[in-house]
Amino acid sequence: MTKKPKDNSVGPWAKEKLEALEQYLNFYTTVLKNQRHWLQSTIYVDAFAGPGLSRIRTKELFPDGPGLFDQDAESDIAEIEFLKGSPRIALEISNPFSSYIFVDRDPQRIAELNGLKVAYGATRNIFVREGDANAQIKEWLESRTDWKRHRAVVFLDPFGMQVPWSTVAALASTGVIEVIINFPLGMAIQRMLTKSGEIPPGWQISLNNFFGSGEWRELAYEKTDDLFGPIVSKVDDSGARLLEWYRGRLRDSFGHVSTARLIKNTRGNPLYYLIWAGPHPKGLDGAEHILSKGERI
Ligand SMILES: C[S@@+](CC[C@H](N)C(=O)[O-])C[C@H]1O[C@@H](n2cnc3c(N)ncnc32)[C@H](O)[C@@H]1O
């Protein structure tokens, strides 16, 4: 239900997400740098890679173009800020991964990712895959059965609820992969959880797939009795309950899970949470340091 922006523009809050990603990837590859004797490869998978470069949306002072006597026009144009997307962030860290897999289903973004492959290909091992992230992850996981000497970080950053629990569980089952997940509580989940609890069948299916269980209903709604019989209503802390439940399930599947870092829009409305999950306590130390800095729900 969440639509992607038509142009390659992002809200200013994307900066916070990308800074956290950069810090964690730096931490991860620096720690693994000293394990080269047994480690065969480190892989970064950006399953919802997006464009290589985005324009940050800022308020337009001159929506119809600057007037003749608008002295500040030039400096306003200069204020347009570009932001490196997650693929570039990952490509530019000082201790690079052995290989990079970038997935997107949008052909225009694939063309831009292929541009990155040309630009960075001399020093980075890059694979660009067009298609659905879940299908591509499944194919990638099936292509490798022995994970012992490989390590990977998978960034799952869609616009909405495009990552079903089955994908998360498949990644966890390798026992060596870490994930950084965008949990789209404000952007998608809460929009589907109507006040009355009457949820269109298509949305119910999306919620079931996303959570991998129908238990979200018991967490988000309560049944009380009044004179006319039972009434269903949404609980005030539905967001906090669902978030903690999801984090608990990540912990059960991966072994460790970080604090969820809240990302808000410029009006202060919650958009999504960034959550790290992985099999190693050292990874948790690094992720916790970075992701516990944000605001709580
Ligand atoms: C939020 S953007 C990614 C932003 C990027 N991770 C960054 O931080 O720079 C989400 C991207 O996912 C892509 N996308 C949406 N649904 C997808 C799917 N099912 N499989 C693969 N890509 C998808 C969109 O085309 C878009 O480029």
Note the main attributes of this structure:
single chain, 297 residues, alpha/beta, Rossmann fold, 8-stranded mixed beta sheet, 3-stranded mixed beta sheet, 23% strand, binds S-adenosylmethionine
Short summary:
With 297 residues, the chain is an alpha/beta fold.
Structural description of this entry:
The protein is an alpha/beta fold and 297 residues long. It has one domain: 3-Layer(aba) Sandwich (Rossmann fold). The protein is 39% helix and 23% strand. The chain is built from 11 helices and 13 strands. Strands 2, 5, 6, 7, 8, 11, 12 and 13 form an 8-stranded mixed β-sheet that branches. α1 packs antiparallel against α11. About 6% of the residues have low confidence. The protein binds S-adenosylmethionine (SAM). The site of S-adenosylmethionine has 18 residues, from β5.
**Can you tell me the CATH architecture?**
3-Layer(aba) Sandwich
* Broad structural category: alpha/beta
Content of β-strand: 15-25%
Helix content: 25-40%
At the first level of CATH, the class is Alpha Beta
- What is the residue-averaged pLDDT? 89
What's the number of extended β-strand segments? 13
Summarize the topology:
Layout: E1 9-10, H1 14-33, E2 41-46, E3 53-56, H2 73-78, E4 82-84, H3 86-91, E5 99-104, H4 107-120, E6 126-130, H5 133-142, E7 150-156, H6 165-172, E8 177-183, H7 185-192, H8 201-211, H9 216-220, E9 221-226, E10 229-234, H10 238-254, E11 256-257, E12 261-264, E13 270-278, H11 281-291
Parallel strand pairs: 1-3, 2-5, 2-7, 5-6, 7-8
Antiparallel strand pairs: 3-4, 8-13, 9-10, 11-13, 12-13
Helix pairs in contact: 1-11
This protein binds S-adenosylmethionine (SAM).
S-adenosylmethionine (SAM) binds next to strand 5.
